[in-house]
């Protein structure tokens, strides 16, 4: 197991971090353009914070290519 702390974040934090709307985020997940959620309970999901941060970094990089 890696010696890295992995943090799971809930929906509201993901939305604040990314600026996406809830529906826009789920559309991006369906298109495989955003990290998918991790089930953490019967009716609860979360996202891996480092994956969301990587998505943000890719978006920043993409602006330089446009």
UniProtKB/TrEMBL annotation:
InterPro entries: AlpA, Prophage_regulatory_activator. Keywords: DNA-binding. This is DNA-binding protein. The keyword Oxidoreductase does not apply. One of its GO terms (molecular function) is DNA binding. It comes from the Bacteria. The keyword NADP does not apply.
């Amino acid at each position: 197991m890696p010696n890295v702390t992995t943090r799971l974040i809930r929906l509201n934090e993901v939305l604040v971090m990314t600026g996406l709307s809830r529906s826009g985020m789920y559309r991006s997940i369906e298109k495989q353009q955003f990290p998918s959620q991790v089930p953490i309970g019967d009716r609860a999901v979360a996202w891996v914070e480092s994956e969301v941060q990587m998505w943000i970094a890719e978006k920043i990089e993409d602006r330089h290519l446009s």
